[in-house]
Amino acid sequence: MGLTERQARARGLRVRTGSAPIASSARGLIHGPGNEGFVKLVQDADRGVLDGGTSVGPAGGEVLRTCTRLLWRGAVQRSVTPLRH
Predict the structure, then answer these.
(1) Can you tell me the distance from the alpha carbon of 29 to that of 13, in angstroms, rounded to the nearest whole number?
(2) Which residues contact 58 (CB under 8 A, 6 or more apart)?
(3) Of 4, 41, 52, 75, which is the most buried if we count CB atoms within 10 A?
(4) Which residues pair with 32 in a beta bridge?
(5) Is the pTM of this model over 0.90?
(6) Which fold has domain 5-80?
């Protein structure tokens, strides 16, 4: 959802990315074994806002729903960092 890292860089944004395995998230722990996959977020480093995200894995849709809400609200990193999914 939103921009990929490549798209953000092509627009001239200074990009910061972060990724994590789904298995290490709360959702991954709930679903148990078989939760291979990852979540990657793309942030505009200058403005500190979320510009995009990708999620691959069994709970990917749930994670992207949360990310989409944050993207549309223009969430800044300091308000997103404490969230756990």
Answers:
(1) 35
(2) 22, 31, 34, 35, 37
(3) 41
(4) none
(5) no
(6) Enolase-like; domain 1 (3.30.390)
